[in-house]
Amino acid sequence: MGVGGEQPVPIPKFDATGEQQGYWKVDEVSHVDAFSQAQSAREGTALMNTGTEHLSSLRAAYLKSLADKTGLSYRRLGSAEEFSEQMRIKSLGIPKVITTDMRWLFALGALLAFMATLLFAPLPKMRS
């Protein structure tokens, strides 16, 4: 899913508490992605280093070629509604049957029922 604008903008840098600590600089990021680096090593070709990896922008052509090479598809999003619609497209999903253990729910129900009888059952009267 491609999201963002066409113009490169600085990428904010955050500390461990979530406070912004400025923006990423040229010498603080790798300028070659892992996919291109691995492909270059396999094929013996030169790496394409743009030198702008410290900036964020939507590079649709690159994302499309990456999707093609990996057998995926590329979609561009513009709004939350579009994202919601795209996520519901059945052809983009991979259906799987997931088994879930539900026994703990029955055990919890039995425990709660037992606790309720202890708390709310009338106490027997003792003879003196």
Descriptive notes:
With 128 residues, this protein is mainly alpha-helical. The protein has a domain at 9-94. Helix content is 37%, strand content 9%. The protein contains four helices and four strands; from the N terminus they run βββαβααα. The strands form two sheets. A two-stranded antiparallel sheet has the order 1-4. A two-stranded antiparallel ribbon has the order 2-3.
Give the structure's gist in a few sentences.
The chain has helices at residues 34-43, 60-70, 80-87, 103-120, and strands at residues 9-10, 12-14, 20-23, 55-56.
Write the layout of secondary structure elements.
Blueprint: E1 9-10, E2 12-14, E3 20-23, H1 34-43, E4 55-56, H2 60-70, H3 80-87, H4 103-120
Antiparallel strand pairs: 1-4, 2-3
Proportion in helices? 25-40%
- Most strands sheet: 2 strands, antiparallel
Beta-strand fraction estimate? 5-15%
Counting DSSP H or I runs of 4 or more residues, the number of helices is: 4
* C-alpha geometry: elongated
Mean pLDDT: 82
Estimated structural class: mainly alpha
Number of strands: 4
The termini sit apart by 79 Å
Radius of gyration: 28 Å
